[in-house]
Structures are given as C-alpha cells and as structure tokens.
C-alpha cells in the first residue's frame, strides 16, 4: 500500500499566509480531511485499526474532535519510528499555523520512514548471519 492517492501534506504555512488570508492561512475542512486521510492510511499499513471521523463542509470542529485527531497521531507515533527531528505532537489549545505545520510534519515523517522501510525491505530468511553460501562453479 502506498500514499500516491493522498493529497500532499502542507508543512510550510507562515505568518504571511495568515496576514494576507491565503488558502494556507486558514484551517479548513480540507485540511482536516487530508490529516485524517493520512492517519487512516498509516493506521491501515501499521495494523492499528484507528477510526477517524469524516468531516464535511459546514461541520463544526470541536475541541474533542481535535483531541481525537491528536490522540490518533500519538498512537501512531507510539507504534512506529519517529526521527528526533520530528516536532512534538501539538495540543489542541490555541491552534495556529505553527501547530498545523507541525501536525503535518509528523505525518510526513512517519510516512517517509514507512516508505523507506518498505523500499529497503530484505525478506527474512534470504540470508542469515554466519551462514555460508556456496555458489556454483566456486
């Protein structure tokens, strides 16, 4: 399973986006849907069976909804590997562009590591430490 059908994560929001009211300057239902899509994807590939809420335009995002999203991210973090450079999971209070960036940076980091492990996977039993291999003609 890969992430090719998912929208790219946004990790570069800045104060200028907020001040000039660009699309990245607002946190919209599309942002929550993108984050939840990555949470569901990572949950599926890691076998975590997490559930995510489906949000639609006009629906109010509550503090409990944010807490559920962040709890899911923490569950994935606990089950998988995270670089020491990955930001801490933000808290739902006073949500801003920095916290939004950090949330998506975490998901990016988790996915990036999963993808690298998937590509570099060596199947167990192919070679064993200390095992001699005899090649024909040798």
Task: Give a description of the structure.
With 138 residues, this protein is mainly α. The protein has one domain (15-120). Helices cover 46% and strands 0% of the residues. The protein has 4 helices and no strands. It has helices at residues 15-19, 29-46, 63-79, 97-120. Helix 2 runs parallel beside helix 3, helix 2 packs parallel to helix 4 (97-120) and helix 3 (63-79) packs parallel to helix 4 (97-120). The longest helix has 24 residues, at 97-120. The radius of gyration is 19 Å and the shape is globular. The mean pLDDT is 86.
Features:
4 helices; mainly alpha; 138 residues; single chain; 46% helix
Mean pLDDT: 86
The biggest beta sheet is recorded as:
none
> What structural class results from the helix and strand content?
mainly alpha
Q: What's the number of domains?
A: 1
> SSE order in H/E notation?
HHHH
Alpha-carbon distance between the two ends: 40 Å
Shape designation: globular
Number of helices: 4
Task: Give the fraction of residues assigned to helices.
Answer: 40-55%
Number of strands: 0
Rg value: 19 Å
Which percent range describes the beta-strand content? under 5%
Q: Low-confidence parts, pLDDT < 50 over ≥5 residues?
A: none
In short:
With 138 residues, this protein is mainly alpha-helical. Helices cover 46% and strands 0% of the residues. It has one domain.
